[in-house]
Specification:
61% of the residues lie in helices and 2% in strands. It has two domains: 43 residues; 192 residues, Biosynthetic peptidoglycan transglycosylase-like (Penicillin binding protein transpeptidase fold), CATH 1.10.3810. A hairpin with a 2-residue loop joins strand 1 and strand 2. The protein is an all-alpha fold and 242 residues long. The N and C termini lie far apart (80 Å). The relative contact order is 0.14. The chain has a two-stranded antiparallel sheet. The longest helix is centred in the N-terminal third of the chain and has 42 residues. It is built from ten helices and two strands, in the order αααααααββααα.
């Protein structure tokens, strides 16, 4: 009896030791994830992201299709970017950008209602959420990626200013085939710098989102032109970070 009892005690002790080890390593992994991602976000408050996953992915897609590798981008600091472009982006993509903390609850509710009613699917992503997706994550539609997007959105709203969020958005967002950011887009479509875009030019560039591979700001379709005109009308009501 003593031997059996001793074996049970040993097995119980081994099980407890294993649980402690699993818990210890789980806490280390989780703690390491939080430390690494927070450090990453804080670094990008001061350092411009050199490349994104989407840029690399699109480049390989072009190569697979027999096209040349193309990655055009040229960073402009916030104060160098045309105010017309900043207002156009907010008017079209995130009207409550200056007021929310990363998540526009009203826009999300509206999107859900329209999607559930069978109307054309649309999202409720803010500029902050789009930055989180473009800079830190991969282009995919899944609950896992959405969860990470929520997490990184919370972090950038916590550690970055609205100016920094809008600056990064306008410098990394896809704006054409192999074209990323406002400066590359302005040069590609209008042969001028994003420092001096007119209201209509800025609106046309923003109007091709979220389908920059399909639409063209130089030769806008009726839909894109109409959308750009609507953006111009709303630009006067858009507040931008100062």
């Amino acid at each position: 009896m003593a031997i059996k009892r001793g074996n049970k005690v040993k097995r119980k002790s081994s099980t407890q030791d294993l649980k402690k080890k699993v818990l210890k390593w789980t806490l280390r992994i989780v703690g390491g994830f939080f430390a690494l991602t927070i450090f990453w976000v804080i670094c990008l408050r001061f350092i411009d992201p050199p490349v994104t996953y989407l840029m690399i992915k699109r480049g390989f897609e072009r190569k697979s299709a027999g096209k040349e590798w193309k990655l055009e981008k040229d960073w402009l600091d916030y104060d160098e970017l045309s105010n017309n472009l900043k207002r156009a982006a907010i008017a079209s993509e995130d009207a409550r950008f200056m007021d929310h903390n990363g998540f526009d609850v009203k826009a999300i509710q509206t999107a859900l209602e329209k999607n559930q009613s069978g109307k054309k699917l649309r999202g409720g992503s803010t500029i902050s959420q789009q930055v989180a997706k473009n800079v830190f994550l991969w282009p995919d539609r899944s609950w896992v990626r959405k969860g990470f997007e929520t997490y990184f959105t919370f972090l950038i709203e916590l550690f970055w200013s609205k100016k920094r969020i809008l600056e990064i958005y306008l410098n990394v967002v896809e704006m054409g085939q192999g074209v990323y950011g406002a400066e590359a887009a302005a040069q590609y479509y209008f042969h001028k710098s994003a420092k001096s875009l007119t209201k209509k030019e800025a609106a046309l560039i923003i109007a091709i989102l979220p389908s920059p591979q399909k639409w063209d700001a130089r030769n806008p379709s009726t839909y894109v032109n109409s959308k750009a005109n609507r953006i111009v009308r709303y630009m006067g009501h858009s507040s931008i970070p100062e």
